[in-house]
Design a protein that fits this description.
With about 160 residues, this protein is an alpha+beta fold. It has one domain. Helices cover about 45% and strands about 20% of the residues. A 4-stranded antiparallel beta sheet has the order 1-2-3-4. Strand 3 and strand 4 (about 135-140) form a beta hairpin. The model is unreliable at about 10-30 and about 150-165 (pLDDT under 50).
Amino acid sequence: MIKDLFEQLKKKVDISSDPLSTEDTNSPITKLTTDKLKAIVADLTNAGPIFEEAGFIMEQLEVEVGLLPKIVPQFHQIKKVAKEDEEAVLQQLSDRKLLQFVLQSLFKSSRMEALLGNTDLGLHAIEIEISAPPSVRTIFKRKPANPSSEKLDTNAQTTDKITHH
């Protein structure tokens, strides 16, 4: 039953039975081969200085091998850079389309924090799924409370309890 389902799926998306085969197909879906996976991983891991110049650091890298392989780097913003600096970094990468795509995605996603307005949520991470089709996930998390103000509030409650007794 699973084999039949796989064969039907294979016919619909027109890919070979081996997701890591190096054969070329006429599939509309771009297939990531082992060589392509290695090249993308190397490109991402070697681009650390470029990411840092752009204000980001790659914290995690997931490589998923399957029918439709994908690579998912996760980034954290370490500093904000001016629009002119963004454009200058992108200009340096005119011949490296993958890194241009990654940086453009990072820049756009980091600006989404402004959409939240004055909330307790802040930009935590950006994940870029390099697959067919690619996608970008912007993750917001609650900002940590100021530990010194928590202590003051706790002390104030304690003092308040003591004076009312």
